[in-house]
Amino acid sequence: MAGRYRSDLKWSDVTPKSAFLNRRQLMAGAGALGLGAIGGPAFAKLNAAPSPYSTDAEPNTFDEITHYNNYYEFGTGKEDPARYADALTVDPWTVKVDGLVDKPGDYSFDDIMKGTSLEERIYRFRCVEAWSMVVPWVGFELADLLNRVGVQSSAKYIAFETAVRPDEMPGISRGYLDWPYREGLRMDEAMHPLTIIATGLYDEPMPKQNGAPLRLIVPWKYGFKSIKSIVRISAVEQQPPTSWNMANAREYGFYSNVNPEVDHPRWSQATERRVGGGFFAKRIETQMFNGYGDEVAALYDGMDLKANY
Ligand SMILES: Nc1nc2c(c(=O)[nH]1)N[C@H]1C(S)=C(S)[C@@H](COP(=O)(O)O)O[C@H]1N2
Ligand SMILES: [Mo]
Q1: How does pLDDT run across 47-86, given as a tens digit for each residue?
Q2: What is the spatial distance between Cα 218 and Cα 307, in angstroms, rounded to a whole number?
């Protein structure tokens, strides 16, 4: 896993942009001084304001969040990403933005971060599958990035791809999924203020096993929609193929909204087991749209969510 990072620098009185630039200088210094691995470039500020969408549930510990992961490029076991993801090179990092946009191009992580107009925030979201975990992400709205590259009106969906690095990712040669890992959102979902690009968690740059240096988080959808280590973002007209749907269309649809009323063919989705709660942890009731119905239910007005699972 990525080394934990501490410094004496106080972030409290710096602006987001200068926090980012300071962080870059610090990282260069850390490298030169041989202070060890840092997960990747970061945009974290210790006292960043929590998003009003944050849950007030207690966050999981850093150790829980970084040792119970799904990242099939590194293996299918929950501990495989923590064991193997250190091999991933995350700096430099380039994201190709293409398709129906005014400013296509290969954007470095720095390009993406320096242009951010919004203040970075802490988003304390519950990630739900059959299990759940509360994570204080640091990130910014995907819409901010999409607006900067100028999504054209003919684009109806945003498609995402993860890096494919057989030399760094031991899971690639084993198959499991049809690489690259792919995900997609309808345009209104992509533009929703709850949809974020996360670049860190707690006060750390994004740990590699959690998808360094930047990943998607869509808190009203099941965890697998939140694609990690993104290298390509495309604005497209047709609904794009997505990895889990390609692997098993009966079990995984395109929408994948958290929905306690629609069971996965192999398990109930009415409840979730909180990770880290210990052996006697009670299952908790899963909320429709993970509790964000007021914010997102209108996106699906008139849609049959049993057919569009
Ligand atoms: N590239 C990539 N992204 C991925 C996955 C993956 O295997 N590869 N797994 C998904 C699944 S199934 C889940 S539940 C979440 C887990 O995120 P976390 O490990 O940070 O909790 O990442 C999602 N993003
Ligand atoms: Mo998952």
Answers
A1: 567 899 999 899 999 999 999 999 999 999 999 999 999 9
A2: 20
Rounded distance from Cα 161 to ligand 1 centre (Å): 12
User: Given 3.90.420.10, 3.40.50.720, 2.60.40.10, 3.40.50.300, which CATH number is that of 11-300?
Assistant: 3.90.420.10
Q: What per-residue string of b and e applies to 188-206 under the rule 16 or more CB within 10 Å gives b?
A: ebbbbebbbbbbbbbbbbb
Q: What is the mean pLDDT of residues 219-234?
A: 98
User: What is the per-residue pLDDT across 113-171, written as a single tens digit (0 to 9) for each?
Assistant: 887 766 678 999 999 998 999 999 999 999 999 999 999 999 999 999 999 999 999 99
Domain boundaries, the chain: 11-300
Q: What's the gap between Cα 39 and its chain centre?
A: 15
DSSP conformation class of 100? S
What 3-state class would DSSP assign to 172?
helix
Q: Are 53 and 194 in contact (CB under 8 A)?
A: yes
pLDDT of residue 145: 95
71 lines ligand 1 (CB under 6 A): yes
- Cβ atoms of 270 and 263 within 8 Å: the answer is yes
Cα of 33 to ligand 1 centre, how many Å? 33
Give the pLDDT confidence score for residue 47 in this predicted structure.
58
Does residue 232 have its Cβ closer than 6 Å to ligand 1? Answer: no
Residue 162 Cβ < 6 Å to ligand 1: yes
Q: Whose CA is closest to 144, among 90, 85, 103, 195?
A: 195
Quote the pTM value.
0.87
Q: From CA 256, how far away is CA 239, in angstroms rounded?
A: 14
Say if ligand 1 is within 6 A of residue 227 CB: yes
DSSP 103: S
